[in-house]
Write a structure and sequence with these properties.
The longest helix has 32 residues. This protein has a five-stranded mixed beta sheet. A three-stranded antiparallel beta sheet has the order 1-4-5. It is elongated, with a radius of gyration of 30 Å. The protein is built from 15 helices and ten strands. By secondary structure, the chain is an alpha+beta fold. The structure holds zinc ion (ZN).
Amino acid sequence: MEIHFSCNIDIDLKSPKLKELLGNFCTIIQKLLGQFVQQSLHEFADYYMAQGTKPFSCDKCGNDQQFIWKTHRGKKTSLITIFGLLNLFQLQVQCKKCNHKMYLTRKLLGISARKRVPLETIRRLGLIGALTTFRVAKKIVGMFGVVLDKMTLWRCVQKLSEEVKFGLDPEERASGEADGTGIPIRGIKKRGKEMKVFVQLKKKGGIHVAGLSIGKYDSGWDKLFKPLIPDLKTFKEFLLVTDGDTSILKGLGEKVKVLFQRCLWHIPHQFKWYLWKDGVKRKSEEWIKALSQLIEISNVKSLQHDKECVEDIVLIKTEKLDGLITFCDKNGWKHCTSYLQNAKPDMFTSLSKKLSGKTTSRVERVMRTINMRINVGKWSPQGALNVNKIRLAHYYNGFEVD
Ligand SMILES: [Zn+2]
């Protein structure tokens, strides 16, 4: 329907300065929006009322044909839009069959009754609130004349996050990485919970976020992997680089073979902690010897391209690792010994399978995306999860709101 729209707005200006003009323009936009929406609703309503069968029906008896007008200027209803608060006179009609009176405005707009923030607004504010702090989001929309409280923004983020779904893409590479990062949680000192992320590598490079969960440190990995098991089963073989507890995936049976690769970048870092646990003095001769050997064993970056001697390299590295394990054992370093023994079977998977998957973490970048937003403030576990669902889906999976 073509609408001929014109409007008159009276504005009291104090000066012709740009600041004054732009300041008043925000007011004009809001008035313009109000009049535009109101007129459009009138014209559509009049057009529908002139038709035999209406695109709406009586809430009480279901009649969709006989109605009469009650008023074009009924009780006002208000909506929050990204252009500001919208106050509309409600259009009211009466059913000729049962005499029931009903408002048409929200039916025509396609939004539910009494809701102050419609879905269109929720989605846009939700994305802004996930990309920046609530304080900045409030400030930005405020500059365009929209007055919002942080709670509204927070609610929009929670609501929008429900739309985000993660999963593995069968068209992309049979390879992925999983890792965790600490999250500051309200009421818990330091970083109370761990956010766990699973990314899938894409054929054309880059990554796609396949799973996200929040829970305790060193546990709850099953919560991340469990929903992905049906997806994993669509692959013949899947290479997974992770330091997480992957026991849930070890029992997948014959259908899918998950190859594990420990993140080699993390290994020397974690080893330092076990050295400390075993009471080995930092920077002592044995400490330096053990750590430097492990750093050398874990460094495979420069060897990745040399496919002919991969098998020999794996053999040499495994022998060196065995030597280091014996060294730790002889010194009575119980934690170090068992840590290396546990890591050993999954350290050179991608090297020995001659798979091109890099063994350094690409999920690290995703962690920075998480931390940039999450380090501003303290969160509830669910709030932290929801804000990052939106962020990661937007940055890595092409999630948009319009
Ligand atoms: Zn009726």
